[in-house]
User: Fold these one by one.
Assistant:
Number 1:
Amino acid sequence: MGPMNEGALVLFSGGQDSTACLAWALHRFDRVETVGFDYGQKHAVELEARRHVRARMAREFPAWAGRLGDDHMLDMRGFGAVADSALTRDREIEMTERGLPSTFVPGRNLVFLAYAAALADRRGLKALVGGMCETDFSGYPDCRRATLDAMQTALNLGMEQDFSVETPLMWLTKAQTWALAKGLGGEPLVAITVEDTHTCYLGERGTLHPWGHGCGVCPACELRARGFEQWVAEGRPELAP
Ligand code: ZN
């Protein structure tokens, strides 16, 4: 791990995972900025969640408020137009003939990381922090650590840099991601995660379930609810960052 003062750029969507990553970065780095990507999602609600989460984290965690720097929003609608998936077009969420869910946007994390690195270069930030996870995720190939190691090498060669691509959730289960939130910010951070983050693929806020807002039936809601219920069944443990 590099010196703490080098700063981090968090890929921040306003979802549960990237909120845990933001807290992890605020715990670890003196200077943290966030970047969001507008790639033509059908759900402006996701972009709205980012603002609420950032504001509430700054308000409820004074120690983090001073570390939380600028938020950047990058227009990726050109990429969204290229990618063909259920998130950017009206298409059912299903398994495709390639054995990947139709929510998979080919190469999305690679594109995001290239843009994030260009931004981090300009902002003097060294750590790129993302919520990619291999454990109980849908098998997206650009979430694998091996992919991200290769991407880190490519970015550092291509930009003459010494970035590190940090993935604090890589080997955690969804239940452990809740435990990590508690370990980083106690029940107040769990409350922010439940009430303000957005994960639902269908973009539904709807009623507030114990695990948060969402339709409750899409794969993202199911994964989130199952992780939460498992964490509660274990007695709401906390995981030290
Ligand atoms: Zn949902």
Number 2:
Amino acid sequence: MSQTVERHEFQAETKELLELMIHSIYSNKDIFLRELISNSSDALDKLKFEKLTNPDLAAAGEDSHILLEVDKAASTLTIHDNGIGMSREEVVQHIGTIAKSGTKEFMTMMKNREQQALPPELIGQFGVGFYSTFMVADKVTMVTRRAGETQATRWESGGDGTYTLEEAKRDTQGTSITLHLKPSDSEDALHDYADEWTLRNIVKKYSDFVAYPIQMDVERKKPELDAEGKPVEGSEKTVIERITLNSMKAIWTRPESDVTEEEYQEFYKHISHDWNNPLKTIRMKIEGTFEAQALLFIPSKAPMDLFYQDGKRGIQLYVKRVFIMDDCKDLMPLYMRFVKGVVDSEDLSLNISREILQQNRQIQAIKKRLVKKVISTLTDMRRTEKEDYLKFWGEFGRVLKEGIYEDHENQEALLDISFFHSTRGEGELITLRDYMDRMKPGQDQIYYLTGDTLKTVENSPHLEVFRDKGYEVLLLTDPVDEIWVQSVMEFEGKSFQSVAKGTAEVGDAEEKKAEEEALKEKEQQYQSLLECLKAKLDEQVKEVRLSSRLTQSPSCLVGSPSDMTPQMEMMLKAMNQEVPKTKRILELNPNHPIMSRLQELYSAKADDPALGDYAYLLYGQALLAEGSPLPEPARFSRLISNLMVGTMQ
Ligand code: ADP
Ligand code: MG
């Protein structure tokens, strides 16, 4: 065996990359360990695979593991694995040159820049795996032996543009990479990477689900035990224990039938920090031009922060079992922010950054599939597990409804699984399909009323004629309802119509005609009174007219078809938006005794000041009935008191 040491020059591009690494382009240096562990895990996978076809390797690959070894005195950290290893040629090829086209592109980009400083998020997209060791080490030594070969190779570099190669010995196949750590008090070292807890935390964070045990020898002080098994005081001795740092529980990689309900629940609690069990577990495998697996959960309870502004999403992204990021916004739309879980891609780069994710076609395709899968799961649940589904709806329906206007592609499917209160639901929620099924013959619109609470909308005067004539009206009381109901053109050919907007035309053509004529007649009768009342309420309303929607109440307020509802107005104001005040229309019930009484007053004395007070009372009543605040509550209550003691004329 020759003992010659060969010195090689790195390829020019590698040199530049090393230079960058030494001057640390990443703000997060901890990731070097994630990179090395992922390489070791790949090497163990490769060995497992090669064993299938190469009988010579049968003996190799027992006890697959990754071992972290710390030498505090020498300030080194070594990562051992007993994976496939590398031959001398492979070392030159894989470690000495940059083969990946992405990295080449990156280097060209660097060269074309006048300054060396690139924003970290741009750097993030390029695979720089092995070289990231030079962020924390000033010298790296690697000893590696290819499975099936007897000769090992020693590679070493100080990151200075050259590396050395020599023959070496290694008992088993695999690779050991020793980092000669930069002093931990030096300016550009963040952590002491020879510290047990630092390493444990980094492994837990990034590599917990790596499928092989990541082990480390740790020192523990242990007392001796007496005959009864009790510790003997003062007998403490230092012992070395080999512990496994990762849980390896990537349960999404195991066959579905192997994982128990309890394991899913435990995993859910681990990633979601929720105490409750999930309502539904969803497994998913994407195959084809790219591969990914997903394990998703629908929680049983809404978290406190569901409506906070920051819009956190519950999906963690992994690449080949290695943790990449939390709260991955590009994998789930905002309206599915309640879904928790993990997505594990086989093809993405470990270094993919948030900025790059946004434009990544694969990520977009995965997102699309996840959304479809969640919707189809919910659709099935609605059909076969209605009780659970209604539980889900109670917790997350308000959020899911945001999708009706945000996600046009799935609008129809989302409407299909939405539930609503209605005037004929008798406390039970109904679907749009239920509504369609009992529409009256000739009814060509879906009637709805929006408002703040179920109590106020249920008692709203706007419903009177619809109730009397047996037309069902959806009662929409979530703020989000205001928005989606205006964005949906139709559901199965029927448009949505607010019963508080426009004129109320219900019934068949004949009924409508008769109604219209009767109203016209009354309008002639009351014309000058209506004009007088309008003059009194000029500041408050844009029109005073007779109503065909009231059968009991004297008055109500309605909007023109394109007007904003008062709820919408309040919502926008709450979001600090400028909203022009929309004046509404005061509608009066021509058949109410108040009307004939007012007419008498008006005929007797057209300038009777009491007319102004009555106009205000009718307006105030209409506001109260729909749950809107009174602009002058004191005036309203004074007028009521006057009425009660009979001092109004
Ligand atoms: P990547 O992992 O994206 O290919 P790296 O820079 O991390 O890029 O590694 C470069 C190559 O070096 C790997 O593709 C692999 O062939 C080889 N390599 C690195 N570490 C090991 C290891 N522990 N065992 C075997 N081969 C390794
Ligand atoms: Mg790698």
Number 3:
Amino acid sequence: MCGIVGFAGKSAAKDFLFEGLHRLEYRGYDSAGIALLNQDKFNIYKTVERVQALKAIKGFDNDGGALGIGHTRWATHGAPSVENAHPHTSENMKFAVVHNGIIENYASLKAELEAEGISFKSQTDTEVIPQLLQKYYEGNLIEAVREVTARLEGSYALGIICTDFPDTLVAAKHFSPLIIGLGEDANIIASDVTAIVSHTKKVLYIEDGETALITPNSVTVYSADGTALERTPSVVGWDVAAAEKGGYEHFMMKEIHEQPDAVSQTVESRIRGREIVFEDIKLNGESLKNINRISIIACGSAYHAGMVGKYVLEETLRIPTEVDLASEFRYRNPIVDEKTLTIVISQSGETADTLAALKEAKKRGSHVLSIVNVVGSSIAKASDDVIYTWAGPEIAVATTKGYSTQLSVLYLFAVWAARMLGTMESEKIEALFDELRLLPKKIKRVIEAEPIIKQAAKKCGNPHSLFFIGRNTDYAVALEASLKLKEISYIHSEAYAAGELKHGTISLIEEGRTVIALCACERLFDKLLSNVKEVRARGADVLACATEGNTVIEAEAQEVIYIPKTHPLLSASLEVIPFQLYAYYAALYNGCDIDKPRNLAKSVTVE
Ligand code: F6R
């Protein structure tokens, strides 16, 4: 996720900005930049290398400007490049801006400004902000910021400087993190406390919709209507290491907790009124009509997201959909042609097998749509169309928010395509759309049940092996839950389609074996209940996951974790959460290296 820093002080700003960006490196980035105001003009330093490279740019080390802003960019709109790196400036070079978040209505704002004769230097959504400041500014900086932010839709944390105000930094926040640090003869801003704690532990929090006017000796926070607000500073107790993880012990836990926001960002940034808009994709109603098969290709958890996608796409589009492991697909002479839509799923966008399979599908004439988290990655570049998941950088090796946002894009795509193809009754598709928008809140509720799940993981201890069973999308979740548990806790587990148990595996069920029964699929609940009875009769201990209101399961399972009711096609998004937490706690109790499990890499760039 992008990181921003800002400094208004009486000494050279570059030292804090440089160190602050270093501290924010853990958030992941592809380029970095700093703007310093010196003698009424901006000096801008940018790099597509590491933050360290800023130091080597001519003039940086001697730049004594005492006002400045800095940024580490995680590309969303526009590939990683010097032009797209922040800070961005207005055409008249009066304003420089750093931004974390996504401006959802940037395309229409950009068109408006271009029609007025403004020319843009980057492909970013952010550049509309300095250009709008230029348009609205009439000498009152905070007023101009207020007018501009009123026109922005989406999320932002902003650091703004203006050549007319050599000691003033303006900050604004709406759904993206921003903190103000109160120092001696210098006040600072940053995306998180990591960049601040080595300077000061005294911080001010600003809320969504608020702006702040920051000088070396004063900070004034304003509400959206311009009223000056009283704010009492807080004292941060964290050290740098704790701050990087947002106070959580591990990145994985932090990322589990980021899921409501990541899903919301992924979904809401594509919605205009009730329309779903995928910017810049070539696929449309006409080309979709020519598709007679969908082939989903991915590895690991992304493959499990694809399995959920199969159920969702077949139900909504009535197009036969296959899911393949990329490592199998690439070597099996697949039947794919120009009537096949290939959907490639990858968090990193660099997985070697997935990339090779993509190329194979393309060679055979298929249109490739990829669902990727990393902008400008190899898979994104090689695809005909890309829909990005806006999960932000994922640092823990085991994916959580990457997987959840992949599911969200698949749901969005299903609704978008079903509306165009008319393959589902409109009432049904609109009900699915409405429920999709409620997912972030419901995911949050599941995360709040963490103490119950922690207890269940503790009780289960360190079994030799356990089983996950489910049907339909519950089966797809069983596979993901089992993978999560194996990879980080090193506990062996098997995921089984519940109906398959009696074809062999049930011989492994014995007294004391733990079976985790995923029961969210209400249509098949009675079938699953029979499977639960079968394993109970052979002495298994059953932990079930069911939707709220399903009390029938309590008679059979020793323990039940409840998730909120949702649309049947969306339940995987809620059901997976308890088992991310379960795997996390099982790994914690087993003393495993949670963020970096043995033998695993975050990005598998070799075959
Ligand atoms: C499991 C996990 C992996 C990845 C797989 C594909 O937690 O993270 O199974 O899902 O290696 O990676 P991407 O999505 O980067 O292609």
